[in-house]
Structure formats: structure tokens, C-alpha cells
Design a protein that fits this description.
heterodimer, A: 347 residues, Rossmann fold, 2 domains, seven-stranded mixed beta sheet, five-stranded mixed beta sheet, 14 strands, 35% helix, B: alpha/beta, five-stranded parallel beta sheet, two-stranded antiparallel ribbon, 7 strands
Chain lengths: 347, 275
């Protein structure tokens, strides 16, 4: 089928995720959802409306509301996955992953390895992240913790098209997948809408497509500097690229789409062209994902670099509440543009 | 044995950092278990797990989970899958006295309770968490009383009497198979040896150990079989010898098995290799 023949629908990320879950549950009876407040009649359909309406179609056995018990949610999903089901577990905020750390780190990620490959854990763990004026325990970007964890894959879609394609891959994958969704990108509606959200609406083909993990995309082509960014930071990087265009600077913006596996090749190839790299990340700076990418790229492409690799990250503090402080905390287009100008001083 | 005799290969157990007895009772090959302890490629989990992770999915023994209480929600999840498939099979979740004070245990048992899952929690109360006596870490005299907090039945039985265990767990398993939900079966027992090889057991009296040893379940079962005229002393001696022979063969098998290639440590991290 050629692309011209495929019908597309305009969707938010929340809608794209919901429709993908709906299609996968209809396609495969092993797929089911569990989490807090995901199917209660009259409830919100998950903290950000992703599962809204699904319990009416699939019933409460397959849209399974749980107690507030994140270790239990992840553990139950691991157990069901071990038995051949394909659970999609949901923690309302990525911050709550920490309540389930043993189940995620010691159980979900290691079960296959310590069984010598005799078992598999095909499950998805969805986690909404990002600063949204909720303070230190409902606004974190904890992705970097899980970048360090062998045994799982980590997805981080920034568009509705990617959200659907990556989630489909995640559900069909035989390994555990941690699926980060940014609260300011969902496009949740009504009372669950986020103040100040970007909520990109995108074209989503009405077809059964998957996006392989470890394949990033170039969001904007450029020649002077490469900017790597994920989730909300993709949009900050693109905005910076627009600002810099008026100064005659050309930025290439890469969205890796998955953290694990990471598309090192795409970045190396780009850096060979631009000779400069800036990494933008909403995670804290020390020990974070941005530092890891910087290390990887300098090992692989040191000879191509004309400037130090710069990181634009959140500072090493908890996420503050006051909106004016939070705006300072989260990297924005101006900080990205500043970093680009800095690396371009090295001629 | 008293637990696993109630189960088929399609029923499952989840085990703990002390999994060897459970694995033997569930039918994991002695040769493969011994080879695992010897870190050989023929080990039941290929040398990737070791002593604390023995098991074999082919006989319904999930490779053991060595985090105290960590197996409770996983057992509940396995039981959820069985229930969703309308299977009549069950999960038995072995855990110790220490697990009942873990948060994950609470979350797992509660979920099993609210959804009437076919899982039986087998609490082996061996009186000590490493060196700490159980009375020091809970106000309850009977750990099975925790069950009331979940709205499910719990019983405390003599874990040194294999027939009592068989009977009680049989009842709990039958209940679970009928869809009546989980139970906690607390088996009062004792850990003869130290917590680990370096443990000299300075925290308890030798008299206490001797009292528990008098109740040894294997010796007592033998005595009862002889008293009932089902076995002779010679039969028991032969039985012991056959077990010893089987263990000797397992050791020989393990020692004759190859060690892994160091680079094998890079395998089995993920299923998917294609990206």
C-alpha cells in the first residue's frame, strides 16, 4: 500500500496511545491494562485520560483497576507476563516508579537473565514524566535512572505518530519496555488538560505500523551543530533552531525516540557533518542521560568534534514548585540557543 | 514436599533465596540443580542464576526470587494470568517469616485477596530472619493472623509434620482451584543451620536447636512409616542410601559439566536482538 492510500487521523499523543491500546487489545486477547483509576466508571481513565472509555469496550477484567500499590502493580504485571500475558501497567506519575523500584530493577529487568533465558517478561510499563508545576514528587524526569538498567528497553515518544508506532512495538515486544510519556505533550482534554502544555497534534495513519526501537529521526536538518533531545526537549530544541536561523545558524535536531537502545549511529553520522554536539535533557545533570550520550559520542567521533560537547539539563536540584522557579529549572529554547552559540565559538 | 505433593507440573511455585527444597519437591532435576550450584552450563538456569535462583519453568518452578517478599506480587500476577485464562491451576508462593514485614508482600497478598486469585501463600516461619528472632519484629504470635487484615483465611500448622502440611495445603489449594481465593498457611518450622556459611549461630541456644531437631520431619515420617508397618528400618536405610547415591551422581554430573565461556555473560539480557 502506498502512503497516499493510507487514511490518516489527526490525534494528540493521549489519543494515539488510547487508540493503539484499543487496537492491540482487540487484536490480541493476551493484552490487558492494569493501574490506578484507569477504568472506574465516571473516573478519569488514568491520570491523563489515556485509558478513558476502554473499560466500557473491554470490561473491568481487562482494564483492571488496582489499589494504590505500585510495587504490586509492577509485580502483578511481571507475574502475568511470565505466564504469557501482555500486560500494560500504568503508574500515574513517573515519580511513583520509585515505589516499585525492587519490582522494576530486581524482578522485571532481571527475570530473564537469571533464568538463563528460560522465561520472558513481555510487558509495558507506562510512566508520565516531566515538570508541570506539581513540585518535587509529581514532576520528575527520572528516565536516566532506567537508562542504567540492563534488561529493559526505554521508549520516549515526542509525537503522536511515534507514540502509536512505538507503543505497538512495545506491546508486541517479548521484553519489558518502560514507556515514558511527557505530561506536557499528551494533549489530555477537559479537566485533565495541562496548563502550558504543547500537546502536539499529529497525523496518525490508520494502519498497523510499528516503529523499531533504536532508530532515531532527524526532526530538522542542519549543518552547523547537532542537537539531540527527547520528549518535550525536542520542541525546545526545534524552537532554539528557529531562533538561531535568524542569526544565520543551521541546527540539526535529532530525536532518538528510544533511550535504550540508543541510535548512536545517527548521532555520529550527524556529528561527522556538523562537528558540534549539544544534548538537551530534562533529567538532572549529574549521572544523567545527557552525560552518557556525550561520553558515547566522544568515544565514537572524537576526531570529528571541533568543540566540547555541551549538555543543557535540569540543575542538580529536586523539581521546584513555584512556576517562576520551574521555568528556570526546565531547559528552554534560550538556554539551548546559548549552548549552540557557545560550541560555535570553537572555529 | 507436603506442599508440592498437592501440585502438578502445570501448577506453579515461586520460591525464595533458600529455594533448594522447594525445587526438589517440585521436580527440578537434581543434576541440573547441582550443576547450577557448581556454575556449569548444564545448570538448571545455565549458570546465570546460581544457588539463589534455581528453578525450571518446565515443571512449574519459577526460577527463585531472592529478594525477601519480592515474589508475592509476582505470584499474584501469575495467578491472575491463570484466572484470566479460566485455568484450574494454582500458584504456591513460598516465603519466610521475614517476608510478612515487607511492603511488596502486603501489596501482593492484598491484590490476590481482592481479586480472589488462585494462590496460596506458604509462610515458612523458621523463627529467625538471619539472626533476628521473629518475636522481635512483629507483635503477632501467629503470622497467619495477618490474613485477617486482608479478609482471607489463614492457618498456622506444624511445619515439622509433613502430613499435616500436605493436608492443610491440600485444603488451601482445593479452595483456590474452586475460585475461592488465596489463603496464608503458616508452617512453624526451624532453620537448623546458620543463615549463611559464616553464621556461627551465637544468637540462640544449642538446647533450642536440639529441641527442634527432635521434631525433625524426615526422621519422624520414617518413624511413623515403620510404626505403621509400611516400612522396615532396612527400607529406610536403603532409601537414605538411594538419596545419597542420587546426590553423588548429581555432584559427578556437575563436576563433569563444562564451565560457561566468560563472554556468555553478554547473552540473555533481552529476547529481542533485532534492533
Amino acid at each position: 500500500m502506498s502512503i497516499a492510500q493510507v487514511e490518516t487521523r489527526k490525534m494528540s499523543i493521549a489519543e494515539a496511545l488510547r487508540e493503539t491500546i484499543r487496537e492491540e487489545m482487540a487484536r490480541d486477547e493476551r493484552v490487558f491494562c492494569l493501574g490506578e483509576d484507569i477504568g472506574i466508571k465516571g473516573g478519569f481513565g488514568g491520570a491523563f485520560t489515556v485509558t478513558l472509555g476502554l473499560s466500557e469496550q473491554f470490561g473491568h477484567e481487562r482494564i483492571l483497576d488496582t489499589p494504590i500499590a505500585e510495587a504490586g502493580i509492577v509485580g502483578v504485571a511481571v507475574g502475568a507476563a511470565l505466564m504469557g500475558m501482555r500486560p500494560i501497567a500504568d503508574v500515574q506519575y513517573a515519580d511513583f516508579l520509585f515505589c516499585a523500584m525492587d519490582q522494576i530493577v530486581n524482578q522485571m529487568a532481571k527475570m530473564r537473565y537469571m533464568s538463563g533465558g528460560k522465561v520472558k517478561v513481555p510487558m509495558v510499563l507506562r510512566a508520565p514524566c516531566g515538570a508541570t508545576t506539581r513540585g518535587a514528587q509529581h514532576s520528575q524526569s527520572p528516565e536516566s535512572f532506567f537508562n542504567h538498567l540492563p534488561g529493559i528497553w526505554v521508549a520516549c515518544p515526542s509525537t503522536a505518530y511515534d507514540a502509536a508506532g512505538l507503543l505497538r512495538t512495545a506491546i508486541r515486544c517479548d521484553d519489558p519496555v518502560l514507556f515514558f510519556e511527557h505530561k506536557k505533550l499528551y494533549g489530555s482534554k477537559g479537566m485533565r488538560a495541562e496548563k502550558g502544555a504543547l500537546s502536539p497534534i499529529g497525523e496518525v495513519p490508520q494502519e498497523d505500523y510499528t516503529i523499531p526501537f533504536g532508530k532515531g529521526v532527524i526532526r530538522r536538518e542542519g549543518t552547523d551543530v547537532t542537537i539531540v533531545a527527547r520528549l518535550l526537549m525536542v520542541y525546545k530544541a526545534l524552537e532554539a533552531a528557529r531562533l538561531l536561523e535568524s542569526e544565520g545558524l543551521s541546527c540539526e535536531v535529532i530525536d532518538p525516540r528510544t533511550m535504550v537502545p540508543f541510535d548512536t549511529e545517527l548521532v555520529v553520522e550527524s556529528v561527522r557533518k556538523t562537528n558540534r554536539l549539544v544534548i538537551v535533557d530534562e533529567c538532572n545533570r549529574t549521572g544523567g542521560w545527557a552525560g552518557d550520550v556525550a561520553a558515547e559520542i566522544q568515544e565514537r567521533a572524537f576526531g570529528s568534534l571541533d568543540a566540547p560537547i555541551l549538555r543543557v539539563t535540569a540543575p542538580d536540584t529536586p523539581v521546584p514548585f513555584a512556576p517562576i522557579m520551574e521555568r528556570f529549572y526546565v531547559p528552554d529554547e534560550h538556554r539551548v540557543a546559548h549552548a549552540v552559540r557557545e560550541v560555535l565559538k570553537w572555529r | 514436599m507436603g506442599v508440592c505433593e498437592n501440585l502438578s507440573d502445570e501448577d506453579w511455585i515461586t520460591s525464595t533465596h533458600r529455594p533448594h527444597g522447594h525445587a526438589i519437591a517440585k521436580g527440578v532435576s537434581l543434576d541440573a540443580m547441582m550443576a547450577e550450584l557448581f556454575a556449569r552450563t548444564t545448570g538448571c538456569v545455565g549458570g546465570y542464576g546460581g544457588s539463589m535462583h534455581v528453578g525450571d519453568p518446565a515443571v512449574g518452578a519459577l526460577p527463585a526470587i531472592a529478594i525477601v517478599g519480592g515474589n508475592a506480587p509476582i505470584a499474584a500476577g501469575m495467578a491472575l494470568a491463570l484466572k484470566m485464562r479460566k485455568s484450574r491451576h494454582v500458584v504456591c508462593c513460598f516465603h519466610g517469616d521475614g517476608a510478612v514485614n515487607e511492603g511488596a508482600y502486603h501489596e501482593g497478598v492484598n491484590m490476590a485477596a481482592i481479586w480472589d486469585l488462585p494462590v496460596v501463600f506458604i509462610c515458612e516461619n523458621n523463627q529467625y530472619g538471619a539472626s533476628t528472632p521473629v518475636a522481635q519484629v512483629t507483635r503477632l504470635e501467629r503470622l497467619a493472623d495477618r490474613a485477617r487484615g486482608y479478609g482471607i483465611p489463614g492457618i498456622t500448622i506444624d511445619g515439622m509434620d509433613v502430613l499435616a502440611v500436605y493436608e492443610a495445603v491440600g485444603m488451601a489449594v482445593a479452595r483456590a482451584r474452586r475460585g475461592e481465593g488465596p489463603m496464608i498457611v503458616e508452617c512453624e518450622t526451624y532453620r537448623y543451620c546458620g543463615h549463611s556459611r559464616s553464621d556461627t549461630r551465637g544468637y540462640r541456644a544449642r538446647e533450642e536447636e536440639a529441641r527442634w531437631r527432635e521434631r525433625d520431619p524426615i526422621l519422624n515420617l520414617g518413624r511413623r512409616l515403620v510404626e505403621a508397618g509400611l516400612f522396615t528400618d532396612q527400607d529406610l536405610a536403603d532409601w537414605d542410601q538411594s538419596v545419597q547415591d542420587e546426590l553423588d551422581r548429581a555432584v559427578q554430573f556437575a563436576m563433569a559439566s563444562p564451565e560457561p565461556d566468560p563472554r556468555d555473560c553478554l547473552s540473555h539480557v533481552h529476547v529481542e536482538q533485532g534492533w
